Amino acid sequence: MNFPPTMTTKKKTAPPQPALRVLAVAGSLNSQSVTRVVVGEAARQLSAQGCEVDLLDLLQEPLPLYNPETAYDAACFPALKRRVDQADVVVLGTPDYHGSISGALKNFLDHFWREFAGKLFATIVSSHEKGLTVTDQLRTVARQCYAWTLPYGISFTGQEEVKLGLVSGSALAKRLEMMTRDIATYGRLLAAQRRADLASKEPGFMARLRP
Ligand SMILES: Cc1cc2nc3c(=O)[nH]c(=O)nc-3n(C[C@H](O)[C@H](O)[C@H](O)COP(=O)(O)O)c2cc1C
């Protein structure tokens, strides 16, 4: 049957989605850090799932202590801001220090807020306990910056689950597999909605972040 031109049923193909961009932050300055090992493994798995992963190791790329009067003029700031701006998802790895996050990670986080809004945070905590207060503090930072978080975080015990620079514990390996799958899945959904909200004129929490 021949349809008139106005009635053609040609299927519209959805525009291709850009690769999900993930900034993975290793927030321990210990050269033998187990947090770095696990963040690195998460980065490897995310790359294998087609994500573009940018690894920020705060030991290799030290950031001056945040001072609101000088931080934005620091030589390293524009490039770091570009990396944060580009990210759809931020993976935050930290050791448990006194039930809290490391100073290095807090210092990184203090440099930004608008740049995090509408993005997904995923948290990885190395702790001898369960790291619950640390995870909660990262969730508080996310809330203050209008970021989403996965409904769970990963915590692990370094000596038991990381050996010779590799993830050795099967429970941690399973949790990482779950987390990287969820980052790729929910990260894509949230990134698409964030882009749509930034481009639209609808009300919503992203309205104030439109250029
Ligand atoms: C200053 C300091 C404070 C710490 N406080 C805690 C703590 O309150 N609870 C805990 O379980 N572990 C605590 N730890 C242990 C670290 O969280 C643990 O060794 C972690 O695996 C270190 O991670 P990293 O190898 O990535 O640096 C502390 C370590 C340091 C150096």
Word description of this protein:
- The protein has about 210 residues and is of the alpha/beta class.
- The protein has one domain: Rossmann fold.
- The protein has helices spanning about 35-50, 75-85, 105-110, 130-145, 160, 170-200; strands at about 20-25, 50-55, 90-95, 120-125, 150, 155, 160-165, 165.
- Flavin mononucleotide (FMN) binds near residues 34, 99 and 126.
What key phrases describe this protein's structure?
binds flavin mononucleotide, 211 residues, Rossmann fold, alpha/beta
Outline of this structure?
This protein has 211 residues and is α/β, with parallel strands linked by helices. It is 38% helix and 17% strand.
Determine the fraction of residues in helical runs and give it as a percent range: 25-40%
What small molecules does this complex bind?
Answer: flavin mononucleotide
Mean pLDDT: 94
Beginning-to-end CA distance, first to last residue: 49 Å
CATH fold-level label: Rossmann fold
**Unreliable runs, pLDDT <50, ≥5 residues?**
none
User: How many structural domains can be distinguished in the coordinates?
Assistant: 1
Radius of gyration over C-alpha positions, nearest whole angstrom:
19 Å
What structural class should be given to the helix and strand makeup?
Answer: alpha/beta
- The CATH class, by name, is Alpha Beta
Major sheet:
6 strands, parallel
Architecture, CATH level 2? 3-Layer(aba) Sandwich
Q: Would you list the SSEs in sequence order as H and E?
A: EHEHEHEHEEHEEH
The shape, in one word, is globular
Task: Please give the number of β-strands.
Answer: 8
Beta-strand percentage range: 15-25%
Which homologous superfamily in CATH is the superfamily?
A: Flavodoxin domain
The number of helical elements comes to 6
